[in-house]
Amino acid sequence: MESLSYKTVSANKATVQKEWVVVDADGHNLGRLASKVAMILRGKYKPSYTPHVDCGDNVIIINAEKINLTGNKLNDKTYIRHTGYPGGQRELTAKVMQQKNPALLVEKAVKGMLPKNKLGAQLFRNLNVNVGAAHKHEAQKPKTVNLNDLK
After folding, report:
1. What is the pLDDT of residue 1?
2. Nearest to 127, CA basis, from 10, 139, 101, 135
3. CB-side exposure of 102: number of CA atoms within 13 Å?
4. What digits encode the pLDDT tens for the residues 62-111?
5. DSSP for 22-47, written as a single string
6. DSSP 8-state symbol, 116
7. How many CB atoms neighbour CB 104 within 10 A?
8. What is the distance of C-alpha 131 from the center of its chain?
9. Please, what is the average pLDDT of the chain?
C-alpha cells in the first residue's frame, strides 16, 4: 500500500520565489493600502508562507502623493520624533508631512504594520515608495497588482 505524505514544507532562503510587484496608491486610503502592502511584503498571500522567513515580494508603490486620508486625519494625525537633545521633541501633522515628503507618510504606515524585529527590518528593505508614476525598477519586470482584488 502506498502511503501519502502529509509533511509540512517550510520555505527557506533558497526555496523562496520572490517577485517584483507595482502598486498604484492613487485613490486608496492610507491604512487600507498599508495593511495590504504589509501582507504582500510578509508573503501572506502565498501558499508557501513561513512566519520566520522573508518569503514576500518586493513592492514598488507609485503615486504616493495621491493617497487619501479620511475624516480629519489630515489635520489631526501627528507624527512625533525626537532629536536626541533635551527639549528636542518635534511634531508634524499629516498635512505638513504629505506636502514635504508624501513617500515618508506611506513608508511610516507600512513599517508600523510589519514585525518589530530583525525580520521586520529585512522586510521593510523590500519596499520602494515613489512620488509620481515613474520608478527605477523597470529592469526587474514588475507586475501590476490591483489591491481591490486581494482579500
Report:
1. 59
2. 135
3. 18
4. 999 999 999 999 999 999 999 999 999 999 999 999 999 999 999 999 99
5. EEE-TT-BHHHHHHHHHHHHHTTTST
6. S
7. 15
8. 15
9. 95
Decide: residue 3, CB within 10 A, 0-12 exposed, 13-18 middle, 19+ buried.
exposed
State how far Cα 2 lies from the chain centre. 45
Domain boundaries, the chain: 20-149
Tell me the residue ranges of DSSP E strands in 58-98: 58-62, 78-82, 89-93
Cell 508631512 belongs to which residue?
97
CA distance 27 to 68: 6
Q: What pLDDT was estimated at residue 41?
A: 98
Domain 20-149 CATH (choose: 1.10.3720.10, 3.40.50.880, 3.90.1180.10, 3.40.50.300): 3.90.1180.10
In Å, how far are 98, 111, 139 from 39, measured between CA atoms? 24, 11, 24
The candidate with the shortest Cα–Cα distance to 145, out of 73, 78, 57, is 57
Pairing of strands 89-93, 78-82: antiparallel
Can you tell me which residue has the cell 498604484?
24
The set of residues, in sequence order, having a beta carbon less than 8 Å from that of 74 and lying 6+ positions away, is: 93, 94, 95, 98
